Amino acid sequence: ICQPSQRIYHSSISMSLLLGLYSAPSLGLGGARTACATSRAHACMQQQQQPGPPYAGPRSTPLLDTVSTPNDLKGFSLAELKQLSHELRWETINAVSKTGGHLGSSLGVVELTVALHYVFNTPADPVIWDVSHQVYPHKILTGRRERMPTLRQAGGLSGFAKRSESEYDAFGAGHSTTSISAALGMAVAHELRGLDQERTSVAVIGDGAITGGMAYEAMNNAAYLNSRIVVIYNDNGQVSLPTGTPSAGGTVPAGSLSAYTSRLIASKPFQDFRDIAKSINRLFPSEIQQANAKIDEYARGMVSGGTLFEELGFYYIGPVDGHDLDNLVPILENIRDRGGKQPVLLHIKTDKGKGYPPAEAASDKYHGVPKFEVATGKKLTAPAKTPSYTSVFADSLIDLAAADRSVVAITAAMPGGTGVDKFGKRFPKRTFDVGIAEQHAVTFAAGLAVEGIKPFCAIYSTFLQRAYDQLIHDVAIQKLPVRFILDRAGLVGNDGPTHHGSFDLAYIGCIPGIALCAPSDEVELRNMMRTIYEVDDKPTALRYPRGSALGLDVLNDLFEYGLDEYPARGKALPLGKGRVVRGAREDVSSRVAILSLGTRLAESVLAARAIEGAHADVGVTVADARWMKPLDTALVARLAEEHDVLITVEEGSIGGFGDHVLHYLSLGGFLDEGTLKARPMVLPDKYIEAGSMGEQYEEAGLSQRFIEATALRLLGKPVSMGSSSLADEEPTIA
What we know:
By secondary structure, the chain is α/β, with parallel strands linked by helices. Helices cover 40% and strands 12% of the residues.
């Protein structure tokens, strides 16, 4: 019974093992549950995937075709659930191939999704998906299969869980580490309302999300409140995107927690035995139960370190194969039917990208993919004609680090998205991936800065929101020269409102003593990297959008750079000084100034050309503010004094750059005489849903034609908006 490598710590446990092995099928633990497959299941068992291309799924989906809601699963046998999972996996692959999206994470939870909806009474039993980029199979099973072609498109399905979309989406997400807190709050609310005590709140959280401290805050509180929640810990070894980036910690998944859970996985035979022994233990006299409990606690601590979650008050079960429905379904049924309210943590092991060979072989497991060819896995993207802003940042940081050993890069589980992976390949010992732990990332950077290191803390704009107190308390107040790199500033495209970098100008701009800049193009980005590198007496923040830069032809046309190639190195810019990129023509009766911050500068120049081309009596100046803090007040004053209209343009929310300009104009008395008409153009005060970036900026009113129309209205001239001419865009993925 016992393999030589396993130790038996107590004779009663050996007896439990004997009894457990004999009884496991009836208890639903550790053994294969015998299910009588119906004739329908036998009829629909179809070809499994081939070992090599071309890859193809089932020719038909007879079981999936019968599922409109999770209630339709309740009568399925285990054999049918397995076949349904096969059909669902390929339905997901085929759907995402046409729209792009988060594929790998969805493929990894197909069996779990089927099991949860089969075992629990959703939506009465709420299932909260952490991050929720893995919810595509869930959407298909909950009445949204026919809308999958609209996934992440304008007016279509969200790429994440969304409460307004379905009653089965119990809690919206997009950021990580929120599920346990939300599940606990819902469980406590259920009890406070005096409702059925048998309801179960389920949180599904991955090994990446559980690196965030909020997960432990919630678990610490869960046992204290003694509420009936189940945490499904989905362990797939993909802590960062991609996992395996060379860094100071090596190429293993970021953090000690991943190593800890890997030890749990390695001790799986003991854990299976423990589950069985625990279940049988209640049959013995009380004195033996107590002895077994002590021995079991000691054994788990010695063999697997499995007491971490139980020290937090959870009943720990696992590890369990998250793709094995024979085991997963009965274990979930036992958890559902347990007595009492002690929170339970079920630790499952899954494979991201499961069942689709191209995803399984990829370093990122096809975490986020554009449209692709199912038969081969080939991604259907045209070669980029211009560099991305992210790659320009990475190359600039590498150049700085090559000349200065004190330059380091920090990322919070997003090395690929931020370009830090490229830096890590060149300087692994100076690359720090802290996991999904933005608060720690910021204060860790502050500690490095105290000792004279030059940290570049690269975090998406939307994710830096999670570390706001650290930004103020640990960095700004102490005037520590941490350099914040905010990728994905502005609107981001298909990932929608949870990922837009809409608020950083407002939430950073109000902090005293921080310098905040936004490049208009890739050359300016290189220059600003050099500039903030040289700032050693205060924190700095540099924001830029996702996507491709403008390219030399556009730079030369719009800004008259006269470049044959990109400059080899960036050059430092004067702090807090903007520039005029286009002067208004002379001898006109009306003068307009457009003051842009960031990459709306190109649209501003195009608008200026269109206005002057259509109205001979109007001259338009276009200026690039470069800095929000310190604000170039001399430039603002000059524009205000020499023009009839002043328009500010930015890729940010209310409360940002335009408000700072208006505040200065108001305090300086520039608006007192009523001769200057000033207007800020910002993102509207609403959440802009998924779509292409072009569609979103049209909806926001920040494209060329809206800038042009704003100027003409202020001049009292007729406005013809025309129609937008959006070029086809590739789907965007975080």
